[in-house]
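Bench notes, afternoon.
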Amino acid sequence: MTSGAVEFVDESNIRAAVRAVFEDLRLQLAALLPDAAIEHIGATAVPGAVTKGDLDVCVLVDQGGFAEADRLLAERFARNVGSDHTESLSSFSDGSKAVPVGIQLVARGGPEDFFVRWRDLLRDSPRVLEAYNALKRQWHGRSHESYRIEKSKLIERALRAHPNTPEDSS
């Protein structure tokens, strides 16, 4: 969703549905892109996080395989036209599952290769998770575009403040 109001749900109520969709999708993506690392990211990957109730997946590939992975994913999923599209990031969506799905195709080591690190920081830092949840609660029912801008600022600040958070090792 790129417009309208932000609506959040209790992640514990949708955890089983998200897990089932992720496992099914992980198998499909692994068959399609056997050299990719496939990670459950986003709020539903973080116990206690406030979420919109969707599933976010990060597909990490080497830069040399990015264009081919992008082509293969574009044959099977809709492009998320509201998201950035660069030489190292492509976004896709799938509304046909039990929960909405967003897929971020990311080149390892590229400028957008921070999704797994952000997930791990949220899992490891109660303080960062609480700040993230507070931001989300503040934006509940308000502009989605403005929320995305503020969320990006918070993520950038938190990652800069925690430079020793382990990078993705896949």
